[in-house]
């Protein structure tokens, strides 16, 4: 049997693994394919492809776009997209600028809570590419405000925590369209975070083609629920570990791995 992990982050966003480390790790864990799905960037894909060139590992170009609806953060995965398309790259640059502004806003909120964090510390940790909450969590840990990154999310910057800022550049409709226009297949990431499953029907009317049914945080009953929903709505089924490297130590590459036939269905959907 061949397996794939379709949700993997690199150092280009908020993971801690380099392209070379990811290719080596995926091969060691017996995977046949991984999809690179960094937050709001395709900056690592060319290098991962290059690293995998002489190996048996297939690299699926992807992205995890951050969008919002009703002040809720919604992540849309895109697969098999043309990661060199200029329209996509231009839009991502705007998203990146928006993310930098968001860091300043979150730092301001933290200040209101008595936490003096320097935004530059966050930017130094993130380096090039996408900056986000994981880098803020690591900065809070570095400066001793929290004992772990998960404490940072729980107390300060988690979706329902006091310093959280949504304010993303893209609506869900725009995110799905951006992926479709780049020739990709749009899939709703980790649907369990949605407050309201009826939104999924709405997203389908925007062009959503799949659901990330297999995900580490999904219970067996949630998996069954989303499998049913995917069937009823005519959606593709995907899955992945949301691998981030050492910042999410319990999640390994391939913690969630899906049968390769689901990858083939995804590939076919792109060709339609
Ligand atoms: P952002 O794109 O800046 O909103 O950050 C989203 C990322 O933050 C996710 O991909 C995770 O890496 C991380 N994250 C969000 N919520 C949590 C949480 N409760 N615990 C740990 N990491 C989280
Ligand atoms: Zn992340
Ligand atoms: Fe996500
Ligand atoms: Fe992710």
Structure characterization notes:
Strands 1, 2, 3, 4, 5, 6, 7, 8 and 9 form a 9-stranded mixed sheet that branches. Helix content is 43%, strand content 17%. It is built from 10 helices and 9 strands. The protein has 2 domains: 3-85 and 171-271, Metal-dependent hydrolases (TIM Barrel); 93-157, DNA polymerase, domain 1 (Orthogonal Bundle). With 272 residues, it is α/β, with parallel strands linked by helices. Strand 2, helix 2 and strand 3 (58-69) form a beta-alpha-beta unit.
Q: Topology of this protein?
A:
Blueprint: E1 3-8, H1 19-28, E2 33-36, H2 45-52, E3 58-69, E4 72-79, H3 86-112, H4 119-126, H5 133-142, H6 149-157, E5 170-171, H7 172-181, E6 185-188, H8 198-206, E7 210-214, H9 220-233, E8 236-239, E9 258-259, H10 260-271
Parallel strand pairs: 1-2, 2-3, 3-5, 6-7, 7-8
Antiparallel strand pairs: 1-9, 3-4, 4-6
Helix pairs in contact: 1-2, 4-5, 5-6
The structure holds adenosine monophosphate (AMP), zinc ion and fe (iii) ion (2 copies).
């Amino acid at each position: 049997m061949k397996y794939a992990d379709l949700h993997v982050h690199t150092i280009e966003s908020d993971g801690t693994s380099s392209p070379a480390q990811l290719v080596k790790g995926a091969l060691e864990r017996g995977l046949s394919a991984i999809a690179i799905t960094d937050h709001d960037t395709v900056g690592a894909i060319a290098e991962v492809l290059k690293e995998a060139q002489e190996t048996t590992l297939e690299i699926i170009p992807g992205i995890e776009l951050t969008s919002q609806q009703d002040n809720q953060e919604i992540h849309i995965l895109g697969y098999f997209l043309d990661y060199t398309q200029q329209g996509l790259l231009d839009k991502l640059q705007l998203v990146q600028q928006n993310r930098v502004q968001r860091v300043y806003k979150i730092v301001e909120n933290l200040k209101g809570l008595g936490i003096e964090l320097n935004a530059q510390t966050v930017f130094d940790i993130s380096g090039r590419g996408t900056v986000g909450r994981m880098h803020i969590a690591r900065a809070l840990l570095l400066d001793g405000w929290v004992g772990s990154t998960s404490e940072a999310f729980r107390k300060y910057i988690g979706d329902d925590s006091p310093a959280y800022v949504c304010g993303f550049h893209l609506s869900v409709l725009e995110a799905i369209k951006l992926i479709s226009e780049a020739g990709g297949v749009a899939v709703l990431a980790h649907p369990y975070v949605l407050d309201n499953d009826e939104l999924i029907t709405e997203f389908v009317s925007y062009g959503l083609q799949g659901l990330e049914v297999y995900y580490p945080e999904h219970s067996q009953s949630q998996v069954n629920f989303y499998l049913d929903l995917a069937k009823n709505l005519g959606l593709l089924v995907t899955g992945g570990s949301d691998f981030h490297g050492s910042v999410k130590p319990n999640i390994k590459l391939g913690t969630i791995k899906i049968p390769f036939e689901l990858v083939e269905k995804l590939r076919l959907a792109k060709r339609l």
